[in-house]
Amino acid sequence: MSLRSRKASDKFLTGREVRVWRLSRNLTQPELGKWLGLTPQAVARYEIVGVTKATALAFSAIDRGLKPVKLSKSDYKLAEDRANGKPKEEELNE
Predict the structure, then answer these.
(1) Which residues belong to any copy of the HTH cro/C1-type domain (predicted)?
(2) Over the chain, what is the mean pLDDT?
(3) What distances in angstroms separate CA 22 from CA 10, 37, 60, 63, 64, one per listed residue?
């Protein structure tokens, strides 16, 4: 028996598992869609075809009460500085 590697596009949860997860948390399709940045129709589709590991991880984040990420201007500034090779503040103080 050989082990096959899982591709990123492989389904991690079945559609039925997605629906059971949503219903067990008392979420409507529009509510889950809002959390995931999707339409209710997309959520309904997930409940038919299943989801990949990335979406399953988003479900886990919702379970833990994590809010969707909102990047600040300082986040963008730091990323730009790193991309341009600017040292971190800690490195300047050494």
Answers:
(1) 18-47
(2) 85
(3) 20, 15, 12, 11, 14
Q: Which sequence spans correspond to the domains of the chain?
A: 15-92
- For 11-65, the three-class secondary structure string (H helix, E strand, C coil) is CCECHHHHHHHHHHCCCCHHHHHHHHCCCHHHHHHHHHHCECHHHHHHHHHHHCC
Q: Cβ-count burial of 59 within 10 angstroms (0-12 exposed, 13-18 middle, 19+ buried)? A: buried
Tell me how many degrees the CA angle 2-3-9 measures, rounded to the nearest 5.
Answer: 135
* Total-model pTM: 0.65
Task: Give me the phi and psi of 5, to 5 degrees please.
Answer: -80, 150
| Sole residue written with tokens 């990949």 | 52
The band of 1, judged by pLDDT with boundaries at 50, 70 and 90, is very low
Distance, in Å, from the CA atom of 7 to the CA atom of 91, rounded to the nearest integer, reads 39
Q: CA Rg, the chain, in Å?
A: 19
